Amino acid sequence: MGFEERKGAAGSSTHSLPRENTPLLSVNGQPHHIGLSSQPKSFANFFIAIVGAGVLGLPYTFMRTGWLTSLTTVFFVALLTYHCMMLLIHTRKKLEDSPACAFPKIASFGDLGFAVCGCVGRFAVDSMVVLSQAGFCVGYLIFIGNTLASLFSSSSFKLMSSTPKIWGVPAKSVYIWSCFPFQLGLNSIPSLTLLAPLSIFADIVDLGAMGVVIFDDFIIFSKQMPVVEAFGTLSTFFYGLGVAVYSFEGIGMALPLESEMKDKSKFGKILGLTMVFIAAMYGGFGAFGYFAFGDKTKDIITENMGKGLLSTFVQLGLCINLFFTFPLMMNPVYEVFERRFRDGNYCLWIRWMLVLAVSLVALLVPNFADFLSLVGSSTCCVLGFVLPSLFHYLTFKDEMGWRQASTDLGIIVLGVFLGVSGTWYSLLEIFSVKV
What we know:
Layout: H1 3-10, H2 39-50, H3 58-65, H4 67-97, H5 109-152, E1 165-166, E2 169-170, H6 171-186, H7 196-224, H8 234-247, H9 254-259, H10 267-293, H11 309-341, H12 348-364, H13 368-396, H14 402-434
Antiparallel strand pairs: 1-2
Helix pairs in contact: 2-10, 3-4, 3-8, 3-10, 4-5, 4-8, 4-10, 4-13, 5-6, 5-11, 5-12, 5-13, 6-12, 7-10, 7-11, 8-13, 8-14, 13-14
């Protein structure tokens, strides 16, 4: 398994498939290698790659963790994510410029893992990509199921009784299973190029929804000003850390996004500005949501909104866009499975089995924010912090000073510690809800 395999797969009938190294914003509708992105387009690509549904669980996390602790955690995770993304860029440049490197073109995170650690490195990256991307999609289904159950059990709709069950079945389960056949169809499409704009549209809707929610939160806060806490406990700190790490998804897109920039020397600057902007947006969104509702903040902040027409449209819009983003987020998972089990060839039954597995997990997890914390702690810490630092250390260990080595090793230890601790506390939260 190596770069020759990837070339062979690329030449197969699945050439049009968006792969692990495919940016969402192409140039004039062409693949990323035909044209290069300007700085504004690169900023948009970074934003699309990083911002996801995790933002909707931030107000609840601020309530659980304390607003000051959460703000600090969000900016700390943003800084650490930026640093690790830059480590990937430096590692690739070192490997590609080295005369001893057998791989002149490293296109993705998985390629980098193979170049540094061989099959073990690629397997580590592939495993974390599968778990994290599938975890994102589980979160999408939980959000859709819980939101629709909340909306259509509302007395304002009068479509069904206020009970959370439909014909004796939990409403959340009914809505998730209702999505299942349509997701089978969407995820069966060999080429998802036409669906990429829907992900961009989803982020636009997210921004609009965040604006509406923040405005609504500000009005409510100015009227009632509930009591809020600045700090939480140790367990809630790890819980909040997991949600924050989940919210800064997109580490796997760092290498392809840098590759498609016209002026690669500006990559660090544009990425840094994007991370600052997103961190400030996350901090404001989480804080305003908590300040408005206090200890009544729900795990999905849109459930705290009123039952008016605007609120309904915002929640339905988010559900629709997450529904169509699902196949795009699952595509790296398909790429890994089809490369490993079908030599890179399209396989319908693998895709359908994966959609079924994701749907079953979504049915078992009751709380949206709890699951965000679990995925962020268990997989995103490894993918976002441990592996980039490990690959950087292994590549530069013969020439770096003790300070650089200590930094890389320190991030590895920190990532492992936060991952294990956060996973443990997240599982406690999930199972405590069921008991």
